[in-house]
UniProtKB/TrEMBL annotation, chain A:
Enzyme Commission code(s) on record: 2.8.1.-
Subcellular location: Cytoplasm
Chief subcellular location: cytoplasm
GO molecular function ontology, one term from the record: sulfurtransferase activity
SUPFAM superfamilies reported for this sequence: DsrEFH-like (SSF75169)
One of the protein's GO biological processes: tRNA wobble position uridine thiolation
Source taxonomy: Bacteria, Pseudomonadati, Pseudomonadota, Gammaproteobacteria, Oceanospirillales
Alphabetical keyword list: Cytoplasm, Transferase
GO CC field: sulfurtransferase complex
Name this polypeptide is given: Sulfurtransferase TusD
InterPro entries: DsrEFH-like, Sulphur_relay_DsrE/F-like, Sulphur_relay_TusD/DsrE
Similarity remark: Belongs to the DsrE/TusD family.
Enzymatic class: transferase
UniProtKB/TrEMBL annotation, chain B:
Lineage: Bacteria, Pseudomonadati, Pseudomonadota, Gammaproteobacteria, Oceanospirillales
Gene3D superfamilies in the record: DsrEFH-like
Listed InterPro entries: DsrEFH-like, Sulphur_relay_DsrE/F-like
Record protein name field: Protein TusC
Top-level taxonomic group: Bacteria
């Protein structure tokens, strides 16, 4: 079965991003299942903040997602409107909004909601984590 | 394939409803079959003659009249909830009894809940 994950819960105020990664690891562990893509929306877009620094003795869920996605060639989409609203910009958006800094972590990409529609159409199941 | 945007969050308690309606409009823009269900705290979205300030949040009620331009023609509510409200609601809703509500949920392949 082909899955996509729709994650909306905050990486700090909920366990959504952590639970979703557990689920994703379980999916790819079975040959008959795969993951089409991951879409972060609402408070979950904070996952892609490169300036968030969890203590070294705690799980860095951002880094774990980036490593997992690279290993399995799974795109990590972050809703561009939700991200900009919450102060998360890539270099292009920083330039467009005429601010000096940007903070989108490597491995994540800003995308419109159209990418979520595509994932919905291309997947057998979309699983929400909040 | 049809998709349901299921709203139960208050329009004034965060950005969830704004971002849910954004998603509904994008589904409509992509010409996907899309419906909306409204229940619980989200019913406040439907109350007529509300006038939020910019500090309260975006005037989401005004978006309702534009749904038809995105081919979003079905906005469902529970009759048991709306009949108890002592206020006027946006007229474009379809009130369903409990059985019809459950049947409506069953008819959608994807449900996005906010």
């Amino acid at each position: 079965m082909n899955y996509s994950l729709f994650i909306t819960g905050s990486p700090t105020a909920s366990r959504a991003c952590q639970t979703a990664l557990d689920f994703a690891e379980a999916v790819v562990a079975h040959e008959q299942h795969g993951i089409q893509g991951i879409f972060f929306y609402e408070e979950a877009v904070a996952i892609a903040n490169a300036l968030a620094m969890p203590p070294r003795d705690e799980c860095n869920i951002r880094a774990q997602w980036a490593t997992f996605a690279k290993q399995h060639n799974i795109p990590l989409y972050v809703c561009i409107a939700a991200a900009l609203r919450r102060g998360q910009l890539n270099q292009a958006e920083a330039k467009r909004h005429e601010v000096e800094h940007f903070n989108l972590a490597d491995g994540f990409q800003l995308e419109g909601l159209g990418s979520l529609i595509s994932l919905t159409l291309e997947s057998d199941r979309v699983v929400r984590f909040n | 394939m049809s998709t349901l945007i299921y709203l139960s969050s208050s329009p004034y308690n965060g950005t969830a409803l704004k971002e849910a309606l954004d998603l509904a409009l994008v589904f409509g823009t992509f010409e996907q079959a899309i419906s909306i269900a409204i229940t619980g705290d989200a019913l406040a979205l439907l109350i007529e003659e509300q006038a939020p300030s910019t500090r309260h949040g975006k005037h989401l009620h005004k978006l309702l009249d534009g749904l038809e331009f995105y081919d979003i023609e079905q906005v469902f509510v529970k009759a048991t909830e709306t009949s108890a409200l002592p206020v006027s609601l946006w007229p474009g809703i379809t009130a369903l009894n409990t059985d019809a509500w459950l049947q409506m949920l069953d008819q959608h392949q994807h449900i996005y809940r906010f």
